[in-house]
DNA sequence: TATTGTTATACTCTATAACTATA
DNA sequence: TATAGTTATAGAGTATAACAATA
């Protein structure tokens, strides 16, 4: 399942666990040998687990990223955050909007440059982040337990793929 | 850049390479230690490279997956394809629609079950797929060259993460 | 009654372009 | 003229629900 609703409240008459015909599985030899598809399936599974871990706090992976980034970089500008996360700047606006609306973060107009907004966590935001990090640590332990070699080796390879080794 | 347009025709006055303020990079120690975020960034980079490789053929990663799957499993049903790819069945409909409209695949009503549609590649679809696979192989070589250990070891770990080791 | 494929709908993620206010 | 943030818009991608044809 890829989201909370699917797991929590799937319609009873929508789908049974097994289909009548075509339940033979397909030959996926080719796709299983491709890095792109393997990454996609791994991400689907890891994000599902993450959703289980922090979904009940109504925090998306992106929101979690921003919270942790601002915690370690208080006063960071929105454009700097966007650049660090590798997304375009308009993408960050609604993310901060949500965090601000929930009282987890605040925008502070820069004293030295009136265009810029420094982002800070509120006490509540910092507190929630600690809870989230604790849940996240459980999530990562769960996911890492599936690995054959160590987490650090996988992380190193993933960051190499990301071009930021 | 995450898509073709961004690279090909970015507006000249939209963004320069360096911002005036806030160009210091942030402390990302925490995020860089998380599997979920590392996978996300790796996927972004790998899909960017894949886009470079097959984007000019107007084929999305999902379409490529379906083409290769149908090539190795002629006559596969839409529901079986959806299940193999881990997506809901309605998701497959527009994908097959597109492939059919371009003459790359065909729907054939099953002789034994009038509800089912068997999917086959056309000669043109099979031909294009061969071209795409050749381009894909270059893409995979390029991406794999970033790795420290071998591709097979990474694939094994990714499929373990995906819960399908 | 159940299943395959489909349509309708909605929500998320993402990017681009253009606007505002400041510099 | 350039930059930070914002707004508006559009296009993927994904899921859920309900429907038509068939079983």
Automatic annotation (TrEMBL), chains A, B:
It comes from the Bacteria. SMART domains: HTH_MARR. Residues 32-165 form the HTH marR-type domain. InterPro entries: HTH_MarR-typ, MarR/SlyA-like, WH-like_DNA-bd_sf, WH_DNA-bd_sf. SUPFAM superfamilies: Winged helix' DNA-binding domain. This is Transcriptional regulator SlyA. It comes from Cupriavidus numazuensis. The lineage of its organism: Bacteria, Pseudomonadati, Pseudomonadota, Betaproteobacteria, Burkholderiales. The gene is slyA_2.
């Amino acid at each position: 399942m890829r989201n909370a609703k699917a797991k929590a409240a799937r319609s009873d008459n929508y789908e049974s666990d097994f289909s009548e015909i075509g339940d033979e599985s397909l030959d996926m030899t080719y796709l299983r040998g491709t890095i792109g598809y393997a990454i996609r399936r791994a991400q689907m599974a890891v994000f599902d687990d993450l959703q289980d871990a922090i979904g009940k706090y109504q925090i998306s992976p992106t929101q979690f990223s921003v919270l942790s980034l601002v915690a370690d970089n208080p006063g960071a500008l929105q454009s700097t955050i966007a650049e660090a996360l590798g997304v375009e700047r308009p993408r960050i606006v609604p993310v901060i909007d949500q965090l601000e609306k929930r009282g987890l973060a605040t925008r502070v107009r820069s004293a030295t440059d009136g265009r810029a907004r420094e982002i800070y966590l509120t006490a509540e935001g910092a507190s929630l982040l600690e809870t989230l990090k604790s849940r996240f640590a459980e999530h990562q332990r769960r996911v890492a337990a599936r690995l054959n070699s160590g987490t650090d080796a996988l992380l190193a390879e993933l960051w190499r793929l990301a071009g930021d080794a």
